[in-house]
From TrEMBL, chain A:
Protein name: FAD-dependent oxidoreductase
Higher taxonomy: Bacteria, Pseudomonadati, Pseudomonadota, Alphaproteobacteria, Rhodobacterales
Source organism of this protein record: Paracoccus limosus
Keyword Oxidoreductase: yes
Keywords associated with the record: Oxidoreductase
Gene3D superfamilies tied to this protein: BFD-like [2Fe-2S]-binding domain, FAD/NAD(P)-binding domain
Length: 457, 105
């Protein structure tokens, strides 16, 4: 039996939407490339019993996992969506075999990825994003040891607090520095989110005792004997040299827009978050009928906003499907809109408090900015000066974005470098076009799909 | 290079009971863990060399977006180790040398 709704992504947005849509009588297929539901924040929550050191926020996702126990919901784990085809449906791959699931309604809830933090040495084994270390804590119970945390943003403090609680405190916290005065001016607007803020302050209290460096810039990592990492940076006190077993960096998260962009949906550049996001109406509706987007994939708002957006999208879909009348939809939406406003009221503060330092958008010439094709910032600057004034021209000139990651690790930096060299605004440079498959599949797999009868999951 | 693992197990974690092989040697994993996690638990070394310069890389983002964790699993090249649950008997090979995406086994 073919479903009424396909949801891509089983994080807070997708899980919330699945439950509400199923309770409203729709048959839902929930696709996620992870082995378990949970998304980024609640990754592996269903199998992480006993890991109290991950903190109370992590445990808060349990109701969402329980919500998936509904006869109307079919959860397909390890299903990597590589194309949403207007005619055929959602195409996904598992273990080298592709499948198609078609439905009149599609909800894209693919969340965020960490913003790349490029600097000389960031490609060495021993340098990783802080969120990656957190994934290892949630999924494997593995804790970084002898590690330094560097960068900015709430997740950096959260990971530090979780490492402390797990008995492996970071040896230093190196912060790119908070423009606090600028951030404080935004504070009144953040008051409804005081809870979240207090949590942030609580986190900062918990990391007391960890050596901290502020206003750090000019990051540089080198490989030392035995695989150790030498980490150099500069603060007001002058050049600093530390060494560690693992350097964990973080500068916030950005929406994953490869799927929405590959579909040709309209996107806008979010100047405060320095990232592209799909243009959405108040119900998550995109520029294409029948396709909605909820959660961090539509713009960074965090887990509570993702829940509210998932619920709002589900109500709209129920209404479109003739299962919910307009009054009922609007009545049920009211508390969700309040929750959403509360969750989002913190964003202006966070965006102002943790700006991305320019040096990471346009790093020094000797930085490898495209990890796949090993292109340096210097090469991009040179090509930009010689007329490669756009992402596509740069791609032709240097192969940036042509490797397996399809620009996920380099596009923000290539954009920053072209903008810096040519003086044009980042918003004028994109959004870069994304081709399907948005995750690599072999030609053999695509060919086999063409020979298959249409199937439904 | 012979770098020790950059991670350690948190207190109270179950033992690694899944047995796989990495280039002929034993690689252990805990149920529910990915191949990339098992690799990082065993060593801090590179698991791959880049096709362009031969530089060493290992799993980076752990969430399927960077493709630095590519390994060959049971004869299939370019598998994302961070998205693959570990299973008993898996035969894993590091990808040292020029192997481009789309290569067939
Ligand atoms: C590494 C990382 C760690 C984070 N940790 C925290 C944290 O501890 N606390 C916190 O408050 N916030 C954290 N965040 C922020 C996080 O973005 C939000 O809190 C929240 O998880 C967003 O919810 P969501 O439902 O929008 O998306 P997510 O929770 O990100 O869920 C999206 C889901 O979509 C799936 N997906 C993506 N693309 C595809 C595809 N092509 N095919 C199939 N499935 C796909 C992913 O596997 C994922 O499960 C983290 C973000 C990242 C990137
Ligand atoms: S570690 Fe980034 S894709 Fe696997």
């Amino acid at each position: 039996m073919s479903p009424d709704l396909v949801i891509i992504g089983a994080g807070p947005a997708g899980m919330t939407a699945a439950r509400i849509a199923a309770e409203g009588g729709l048959r839902v297929v929930l696709l996620d490339e992870q082995d378990r539901a949970g998304g980024q924040i609640y990754r592996n929550l269903g199998a992480a019993a006993g890991r109290d050191w991950l903190g109370p926020d992590y445990a808060r996702g349990a109701d969402l996992l329980r919500g998936l126990n509904h006869p109307g919901i079919t959860h397909q784990p390890r299903a990597t969506v590589w194309r949403v085809d207007a005619a055929r449906g959602v195409i996904w791959s598992r273990d080298g075999e592709s499948h198609v699931t078609a439905a009149p309604h599609v909800l894209i809830a693919t969340g965020a990825q960490e913003r790349p933090v490029p600097f000389p040495g960031w490609t060495l084994p021993g340098v990783m994003p802080a969120g990656a270390a957190q994934i290892l804590m949630k999924q494997s119970g593995m804790v970084a040891q002898d590690a330094i945390l560097a960068g900015a943003g709430p997740l950096l403090y959260l990971v530090a607090a979780q490492m402390i609680a797990a008995g492996s405190p970071p040896k230093a916290l190196v912060e790119t520095g908070t423009d606090l005065r600028h951030a404080l001016a935004k504070l009144p607007r953040a008051l409804p989110a005081a809870m979240t803020l207090a949590k942030g302050l609580g986190l900062i209290r918990r990391i007391r005792g960890i050596p901290r460096h502020h206003g750090a810039r000019d990051f540089r990592a080198v490989a030392l004997a035995g695989g150790r990492i030498g980490f150099g940076f500069t603060t007001r006190k002058g050049p600093q040299e530390l060494d560690c077993g693992l350097l964990l960096t973080h500068l916030g998260v950005i929406p994953q827009t490869h799927l929405t962009r590959s579909m040709g949906l309209t996107h806008d550049y979010d100047v405060a978050q320095q990232a592209w996001r799909p243009r959405l109406d108040a119900w998550g509706g995109s520029s294409r009928r029948g396709v909605r987007v909820a959660g961090d994939g539509g713009g960074i708002g965090g887990a509570d906003a993702a829940r509210a957006q998932g619920a709002l999208a589900a109500l709209a879909i129920l209404h479109d499907a003739g299962r919910l009348d307009l009054d009922e939809r609007d009545r049920r939406a009211r508390p969700l809109r309040r929750a959403l406003a509360r969750a989002l009221s913190l964003r202006p503060f966070l965006d102002a408090a943790y700006p991305v330092p320019k040096a990471f958008l346009a790093p020094p010439d000797d930085t490898i900015i495209c990890r796949c094709e090993e292109v340096t910032a210097g090469a991009v600057r040179e090509a930009a000066a010689c007329g490669a004034h756009g992402l596509r021209l740069m791609r032709t000139a240097l192969r940036t974005g042509m490797g397996p990651c399809q620009g996920r690790m380099c596009e923000p930096t290539v954009t920053g470098l072209i903008a810096q060299t040519t003086g044009c605004a980042p918003s004028a440079l994109g959004p870069g076009r994304i081709r399907t498959p948005v995750k690599p599949v072999t030609l053999a797999e695509i060919a086999a799909l063409g020979r298959q009868p249409e199937e439904t999951a | 290079m012979n770098a020790a693992s950059r991670f350690r197990d948190a207190p109270g974690m179950a033992p690694r009971s899944i047995r796989m092989s990495l280039d002929g040697e034993t690689l252990l994993a805990r149920p529910g863990e990915t191949v990339a996690a098992a690799l990082l638990a065993q060593s801090g070394d590179a698991t791959r060399r880049t096709p362009v310069s031969g530089a060493g890389r290992t799993a980076f983002c752990m969430m399927g977006v960077c493709f630095d964790c590519l390994v060959t699993i049971d004869g299939r090249p370019n598998v994302q180790a961070c998205m693959t649950p570990a299973r008993d008997g898996m035969v894993i090979r590091r990808q040292i040398g020029a192997r481009r995406l789309g290569d067939q086994p």
